[in-house]
Design a protein that fits this description.
Elements lengths: L1 H37 L2 H25 L8 H19 L6 H19 L6 H18 L5 H4 L5 E2 L12 H25 L1 H11 L1 H6 L4 H27 L1 E2 L6 H14 L6 H22 L4 H5 L1 H15 L3 H17 L6
Antiparallel strand pairs: 1-2
Helix pairs in contact: 1-7, 2-7, 2-10, 2-11, 2-12, 3-4, 3-5, 3-10, 4-10, 7-10, 8-10, 11-12, 11-15, 12-15
């Protein structure tokens, strides 16, 4: 009987782990649903921006964290998504809710073609190629030939969507709209990474030569994940334009790509849900520095050194938390589980 009891305890352990993860997910969902009714309009705007950044950081993580392709140009796909969405809504008459899927399809195609042409590039060479893409994008958006579509240096003003649900103001509705899109994209990424394609990407990241000898079509998988990353980032750009209500070439400088890189590393570059931590960081840290300098003149230096703070925290994260915040949380959960686990009866 004791042997059977011990076997039953071991068999029930995975169930406990699954239920624990489900509880955390349910708690996160409850907070996300309640947040717009508790926060002010400004903080609802911030929460919506965090959701959008989480989608963009997830796109970066799929490319760099799971397939090992270093990108410093995802901000270009963010800009492509934002401007394509604006053109579709203002010149073609596409409704705002239909723009993200169209943007996603276009960005996937562009990302796939770019990834296909860059399949021979690896490491620092791929990083430099994508870095060049991020640098040239704002200059292209300023061209006079495209001013009719992009607004040139002056940018384009976007009308925010009107809430179709009584009781929800426009900011709250936009938050829930972005949240629904994010849930769909996160669920899709989670399912893909648990399947054959996810295992192929991880093999491609860890042992590219061995992955090729095992029958994985390395160039095709590299191009596909580049397309998927561009799709996620482009959809985030389309939603980000709706949130801001205004886009201009200056909004998509190289620092946007650096922000996505920082968000990926801080949150956990090989983690799906670590993208949430990264999005929180890149949205909250500059805002805290700005508000602290406004509250007290003695703290004005925080607004000046917010970019060095980015770099310093990134170095600290890489040295102390190689897995980012997601890795730290996972490690803490394992230690708590070990400390509270009941030893099996013999």
């Amino acid at each position: 009987m004791t042997t059977m009891s011990a076997t039953a305890d071991l068999a029930s352990a995975p169930t406990r782990r699954i239920s624990s993860g489900a509880r955390w997910l349910a708690a996160l969902g409850a907070v996300a649903l309640v947040a717009p009714f508790v926060f002010s309009d400004y903080h609802v705007f911030q929460a919506t921006q965090i959701v959008v950044y989480a989608i963009a950081v997830l796109g970066f993580n799929l490319l760099t964290g799971f397939s090992g392709q270093i990108s410093l140009g995802n901000g270009s796909f963010y800009a492509l998504g934002a401007y394509t969405s604006v053109v579709l809504m203002t010149h073609v008459g596409v409704p705002y809710w239909a723009a993200p899927p169209i943007v996603g399809a276009l960005c996937f195609g562009v990302g796939f073609l770019f990834g296909r042409s860059a399949t021979r590039l690896e490491g620092i060479y791929l990083a430099l190629a994508t870095f060049g893409l991020a640098i040239v994008t704002p200059q292209i958006l300023k061209l006079d030939a495209l001013e009719r579509w992009t607004g040139g240096n002056q940018g384009v003003v976007i009308s925010k969507p009107v809430s179709p649900i009584p009781g929800l103001n426009d900011d709250q509705w936009l938050y829930f709209f972005c949240l629904i899109v994010a849930v769909v994209l996160f669920a899709a990424a989670w399912n893909v990474m648990r399947g054959r394609s996810g295992r192929a990407l991880i093999a491609l990241r860890d042992h590219p030569i061995a992955a090729g000898t095992m029958g994985i079509n390395v160039p095709v998988y590299k191009a596909r994940v580049f397309g998927v990353s561009a799709m996620y980032t482009g959809i985030a750009g389309a939603l980000g334009g709706l949130i801001a209500g205004f886009i201009a070439p200056g909004s998509f400088e190289i620092f946007l790509s650096i922000q996505l890189l920082i968000g990926g590393v801080v949150g956990g570059v090989a983690s799906i849900f670590g993208s949430l931590f990264g999005a929180l960081f890149i949205e909250i840290v500059p805002d805290l520095a700005k508000h602290a300098s406004e509250i007290s003149p003695s703290l004005e230096w925080l607004a000046v050194v917010q970019y060095p703070i980015y770099g310093a925290l990134l170095i600290v994260t890489m040295m102390l938390m190689p897995g980012g915040m997601a890795g730290l949380v996972a490690s803490a959960r394992i230690r708590i589980a070990r400390a509270t686990a009941t030893p099996p009866r013999i």
